[in-house]
Write a structure and sequence with these properties.
alpha+beta, 4 helices, five-stranded antiparallel β-sheet, 152 residues
C-alpha cells in the first residue's frame, strides 16, 4: 500500500475517534492532556496549543469539545467555545443544579476527580441543542481552574 494511503487511513481513524461519543474516562484523559500542556508551556502558548484541533482538545463541530478556565474569583481566563470571553466574571452564573458554577467546579475538583455530567440544560456552543454536557476539571495553578467540556 502506498505511504500516502497509509497516512490518509491513519488520519481518517483519528477523525473517526474524534467524532465518536466521549466517555467520562475519555474526558479525564483529555483533562490530563490539557494539564500536561499547561505544565510544559507558558500560559499564552498553552492556550494557543489547546485551541488547535490536532491536540485532540478541540472539536466544536462534533461534540463541542473545548477547554475553558477561570480564576477562583470567577474571572474567565480563556474559553475556546466562545460562550464567554477572557475577563468576563462568571461568579454569578449557576450550574444546571442551581449551584454557583464557580463553586460547583471548585467543590468537584476538591472532593472528587472533577468529572461532572450536567444534565439537560446546557446549550451546545455550535448547535445550541440543549443536552447533557460532560466536564472534567482540575486546578492548574494557585486559585485557577481548567475544564475540558463536551456534549457526547
Amino acid at each position: 500500500m502506498p505511504f500516502r494511503a497509509v497516512v490518509l487511513g491513519i488520519g481518517m481513524l483519528g477523525l473517526a475517534a474524534n467524532a465518536a461519543a466521549l466517555s467520562p474516562d475519555d474526558m479525564g484523559q483529555l483533562r490530563d492532556k490539557a494539564l500536561t500542556i499547561l505544565a510544559n508551556n507558558s500560559l499564552d502558548t498553552a492556550i494557543a496549543k489547546m485551541k488547535k484541533p490536532q491536540t485532540g482538545l478541540m472539536n466544536m463541530d462534533g461534540p463541542g469539545l473545548h477547554t475553558w478556565a477561570f480564576k477562583a474569583s470567577g474571572e474567565v481566563i480563556w474559553d475556546h467555545s466562545g460562550q464567554t470571553t477572557p475577563g468576563m466574571n462568571i461568579s454569578s452564573l449557576t450550574a444546571p443544579d442551581g449551584e454557583a458554577l464557580v463553586d460547583k467546579v471548585k467543590t468537584e475538583v476538591r472532593n472528587d476527580d472533577g468529572r461532572m455530567i450536567w444534565e439537560g440544560v446546557v446549550p451546545h456552543p455550535v448547535t445550541g441543542e440543549m443536552k447533557p454536557a460532560h466536564l472534567a476539571c482540575a486546578s492548574f495553578a494557585a486559585k485557577k481552574y481548567m475544564c475540558v467540556m463536551a456534549w457526547p
